Amino acid sequence: MNIEENSLSGAIELCGDKLQYVHIGESHRGYLGSGQVKWEELFRGLVRAKYKGPLTFESFSSKVVNARLSNDLCVWRNLWDDSEDLARTAKEFIDAQLDAAMRCSVER
Hints:
This is Xylose isomerase-like TIM barrel domain-containing protein. This protein is mainly α. The protein has one domain (about 10-105): Alpha-Beta Barrel (TIM Barrel), CATH 3.20.20.150. The chain is about 45% helix and about 5% strand. The chain contains four helices and two strands; from the N terminus they run H-E-H-E-H-H. The chain is elongated. It starts with 7 loop residues before the first helix and ends with a helix.
């Protein structure tokens, strides 16, 4: 959706209750919020669509992925080396984005 759609929130809202699974990752596959994805728009769409399904996060770093897989995935940079910190930070980021989107929805 990030590449093919004119509006992340619009595409998500259009899916409505047909949307069953959301898989997210940062544009450079690192920490959420440190790349170019328009997260506010994405989470606003999820809230407006009343999405209640699973939300998964994926990230890669050359530090923790074996060299062959890293090459196959075109991951040439070390974006993180502490998976616990990455997971904790991702959870906090997702929760904050959802809270902000819900507040905006209520204020609307």
